[in-house]
Amino acid sequence: MSNQRMEIDLVYLWVDGSDPKWQAKKRAFTGAISDNSEVNNKGRYINNDELRYALRSVEKHAPWIQRIFIVTDNQRPEWLNTDDPRIHIVDHADIMPPEALPCFNSIVIEHFLYRIPGLSEYFLFANDDMFFNADVTPAFFFGKDGYPIVRLQRKPLGKWRYRWKRLINKPLSNYRNTVANASRLVEEKFGKYYPGVPHHNIDAYRKSDYQTAVEDVFDKEIETVMSHHVRHEDDILRVIYLYYGLAIGRGHLKHVTRKESLTIDLNKPDYRKRLLHFQPQLFCLNDNQYVSDSDRRRIKPFLQSVFPKKSTYEK
What is the DSSP letter of 100? Predict the structure, then answer.
């Protein structure tokens, strides 16, 4: 199949952390909405209206996307045109097992994306803070053989860097732990270790391989993290499905540079300067525990200047 004729969908995770009902649910289950830690900071849940502009970037730069699935916890953006047949709201309960609910851990939610009703065999996944910044074609994400192009950041020292940190008693971040867990499991099962780490941007997947990995290959391991309703150091990042694709010969490895995939930390001073300097094809606005509310107030004016035209996905 030519990648130009593929039917490709796009999946987003979205949450509105300012929703009183959602806050009450999270507070009742976890005791705190946020504590400014890496695993439970405000940036994990706050809604800065990024999804509106992410969809504008889709319409502008990737109009060939077929359907857009927005995975939420019984929420929906008030501005979203849900009458558009391309838009589908998917509740956590539609795809996740009951024992995993309620879930405030995006890492766990991502293990069940393949269960989305009507999802195409070929799909892209993005957080709502990830954007297309240039015109791209399906060939940007899938090879001529239909296998995903796996974009990773090059990390030459690989697992030795992790071991060295442990030797000097420098703990890995929660995120690095979840990456290390994924790479270790693939090495144990397939004898192949991939030192590259996620580029933290829009990625491509084949649903059938995703499903096989979850249900047959790593089923016992996924079962052990299913009950992690908030982030945990034993979580397994979805990069495991990219490593798995490479290990079985159903993926094409590509190491990225900032001109292709750029992460902009929101606590840095000038978003536009960084975007103009690298002119990447994809970019992400990364929120974390170091970002202040004054940093976040710069997001919407910046995105409005980059994507000023209202999309047909909006009311």
Answer: G
Q: Could you tell me the pTM of the whole model?
A: 0.92
Rounded to whole angstroms, how far apart are CA atoms 178 and 175? 5
Architecture of the domain whose range is 3-306: Alpha-Beta Complex (3.90)
Q: Check: CB of residue 246 under 8 Å from CB of residue 194.
A: yes
Instruction: Please identify which residue in the block is written with the tokens 């705190």.
Output: 32
Both ends of the chain: CA-CA distance in Å?
36
SS3 content of the chain, % helix, strand, coil (to 5): 40, 15, 45
Which of 257, 148, 127, 276 is CA-nearest to residue 200? 127
Beta bridge partners, 265, equal: 286
| Dist. CA 182–CA 110, nearest whole Å | 14
Q: Please say if the pLDDT value at position 42 is more than 80.
A: no
d(CA 178, CA 232): 8
220-250 pLDDT, tens digit per residue, is 999 999 999 998 999 999 999 999 999 999 9
Q: Which of 296, 290, 138 is nearest to 204 (CA)?
A: 138
Q: What does the DSSP assignment read for 14-48?
A: ---TT-HHHHHHHHHHHS-S--SSSSS-GGGT---
| Residues whose CB falls within 8 Å of the CB of residue 101, separated by 6 or more in sequence, listed in order | 92, 93
71 phi/psi in degrees, rounded to 5 = -90, 120
Q: Give the containing element (helix H, strand E) for 262.
A: strand 261-265
Distance between CA atoms of residues 307 and 211, nearest Å: 35
Per-domain residue ranges for the chain?
Answer: 3-306
